């Protein structure tokens, strides 16, 4: 099992502030796990989320 990431770790990975990551959590726009009141992230889910939300994967219909 992969080591779970903290908010600070995810913020560094995606290039956001921890406050911005908290906002994504509040809006349920980023996958997270709540363990005993603490928020953690699965690295593979974060990687998939980044891929899903990257502009490289958006197809523009004309």
UniProtKB/TrEMBL annotation:
Keywords: DNA-binding. GO terms for molecular function: DNA binding. It holds the Pfam family HTH_17. Residues 4-53 form the Helix-turn-helix domain. The keyword DNA-binding applies. It comes from the Bacteria. The keyword DNA-binding applies. NCBIfam families: excise. This is DNA-binding protein.
């Amino acid at each position: 099992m992969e080591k779970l990431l903290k908010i600070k770790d995810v913020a560094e990975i995606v290039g956001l502030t921890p406050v911005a990551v908290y906002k994504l959590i509040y809006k349920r726009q980023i996958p997270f796990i709540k363990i005993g009141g603490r928020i953690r992230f699965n690295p593979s889910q974060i990687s998939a989320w980044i891929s899903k939300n990257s502009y490289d994967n958006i197809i523009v219909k004309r």
